[in-house]
Each structure stands twice: as structure tokens, then as C-alpha cells.
């Protein structure tokens, strides 16, 4: 079953390779979607794919890469859109 989650992560999550590590982790789990830096020092991501893979990415987002300090994570369910790949989008300021 394909599911989709939107995740917003706050803390020390910019400038610590969060987006690139997220992309690599998504590819390892066969998850499509995107990740980008947003204002207020947060990272926003969409994970879409099989439930097990998406849940693995949500768990990963709760800790992030080694240099990150994740302080808060918001997760929302969304309707899948049929995404086929995972990409790092330009930052939004």
C-alpha cells in the first residue's frame, strides 16, 4: 500500500548534510519524494512509497544525520501523488 507523509523537522538541521543524507536514505528504502530547507531553520520533506519504507524515513527524520540535533518533528498524512523519484529541492526562504 502506497502512503505519503509530510515531515517538518526543527532544530540544528541545516548545514549538517540533512538533505543529502535524507536523499540517500530514501533511495536505500525505495521511497520517492523531496526534501528542502525552509525558513526558521527547518527542513521539510515528503516521503511517498510503501508503508514500511516511509515509516523508516520518518524514524530516520526523528534523529537525522550524525551532526544534526533534532528538537521537533511534525508528521502529517497526505494523499499519495504517484511520485517516482526522490530529489533535493532548492531552499525556500
Quaternary organisation of the protein chains: single chain
Number of DSSP strand runs:
5
**Largest sheet report:** 5 strands, mixed
Strand order of the largest sheet: 4-1-3-2-5
Unreliable stretches: none
How is this structure best described in words?
This protein has 93 residues and is of the alpha+beta class. Helix content is 24%, strand content 43%. It is built from 2 helices and 5 strands; from the N terminus they run βαββαββ. Strands 4-1-3-2-5 form a 5-stranded mixed sheet. It is globular, with a radius of gyration of 12 Å. It starts with a strand and ends in a 5-residue tail after the last strand. The mean pLDDT is 96.
Short description:
By secondary structure, the protein is of the alpha+beta class. It contains two helices and five strands; from the N terminus they run βαββαββ.
Topology:
Layout (H helix, E strand, L loop, with lengths): L1 E11 L5 H11 L3 E7 L3 E9 H11 L7 E10 L7 E3 L5
